[in-house]
Structures are given as C-alpha cells and as structure tokens.
Amino acid sequence: DFGCSTGPNTFHVVQVIIDTVKSKHLKENNETSLVPLEFQVFFNDQPNNDFNTLFRFLPPSSESEYFPVGVPGSFYGRVLPRNSIHIGHTSYTTHWVSKVPESVCDKKSPAWNKNYILCNDLIEEVTKAYKVQFIKDMELYLEARAEELVSGGLMIILGQCLPDGVPMYETWQSHVADTIGDCLMDMARSGIISEEKIELF
Predict the structure, then answer these.
(1) CA torsion sign, 125 to 131 to 133 to 136?
(2) Residues contacting residue 156 through CB under 8 Å, at least 6 positions apart
(3) What is the pLDDT of residues 151-165, one digit of tens each?
(4) Residue 137 scores a pLDDT above 70
(5) For residue 146, what are the CA distances in angstroms to 46, 174, 190?
(6) CA–CA separation, 101 and 28 (whole Å)
C-alpha cells in the first residue's frame, strides 16, 4: 500500500486484496488440497509517518495472513526492488504533490496563491502550476511502479477527480480547506503562527 498512513483503512484494503487473491487461486485450482498462500505486505509512506502506530494496530499475528514490512520513503521514486510486487495499491494519496510549485510561493509570480492553502482555481496560473507539478509527479510515480511491479502485475490507484466543468471552489473539499485556511489566517493575525508559514503551506 503506497501512502498507507497509520491505518485502519490500509488494513481493510490489504485484507480485501488477500481474500480476493485466495478466492481466485482456489477457483483456478479446483479447490484441491493446496499449500496455503503466504503474503508479504509492504506498507509505504513518508519517513515522518507514524509507523509505530501503524504496526501497533496490525491484526494479531495469530490472525494475520501476511508478513508486514514498513517502507519509509516518497512514492514519487522507487521504494522497492525491481520486479518485487504483484499487486500495488494507493487510495487518495496522489493528490498530495511532491512539492508546492515554486511559482505559487513566489510573491512576484502571477501564480502567487496568497492566503490559500489549496489550489485556488480562481487564478488560472495557480491551476496551471499545480497541473504541471501533478503531471511531473505522476510520471515519476508510474515509472517507479512500472519498475517495482512484476510483469503482468496489477496497480490499483484510487483518487479524487473533478467532474468536467465543475470548478474546485464549488466542491465540499474546497469549502473545508477554505475554512481551515480562514482559521490559520486568524491564528496568524493573533500572532500564534506566521503568515509566511501559511503562504508556504
């Protein structure tokens, strides 16, 4: 699972994948007496992810059907050996770009995204800067997974998308982010945090 966080969603997904593979394996082999399949699961996230919490909430080893491994590192590069995984999975992670586009942080740029913590699609240059960054990141992501997956392997990518013609500012995610942004600006006005930190968030 690429971008596993600290659970419990990752455990549910892993179990669904394992159950599906086991079921398919039994059907294809006429449910004869088979040696039980063994699974190794790689849980990947940023190095600052709380892997201790993740592993503390793992199913008890007596009930677990897999051998878990923590893999810290950015999934925008390779984190596993070549041809080492059969199924890869990520849910709602690839919208986190590897970095904020430089033009969005440049006060002299037309893409300057002042006072917004989300891609402000009211400013065309901001949207373009994030699209360019997303495309670069996804190319790196897919290249890395192509090397890590075995031939014929499966990569499952779930993510957020906007329907055609619906601007970001009309979505509930934008309203939530705007509310958080307003709270952060109030904190900056109160001197709790600096406005510069918000601008670079």
Answers:
(1) negative
(2) 87, 88, 89, 90
(3) 999 999 998 877 788
(4) yes
(5) 20, 33, 48
(6) 48
Residue 10's pLDDT is what?
Answer: 94
What's the pTM?
0.83
- SS3 of residue 35 by DSSP: coil
SS3 of 86-108 = EEEEEECCCCCCCCCCHHHHCCC
- Which whole-number Å values give the CA distances from 22 to 17, 33, 34, 43, 109, in the listed order? 9, 13, 11, 20, 54
Helix (H, G, I), strand (E, B) or coil at 25: helix
Residue showing tokens 């040696």: 35
Write phi, then psi, for 148 (nearest 5 degrees). -80, -30
Contact (Cβ atoms closer than 8 angstroms) between residue 49 and residue 4:
yes
Tokens, residue 143: 């290249």
User: If we measure between CA atoms, which residue out of 142, 144, 119, 143 comes closest to residue 131?
Assistant: 119
Strand partners, 72: 45
| Residue position matching structure tokens 């031939």 | 151
Mean pLDDT: which of 28-32, 53-57, 158-162 is highest?
Answer: 53-57
Bridge partners, 36 (sequence order)? none
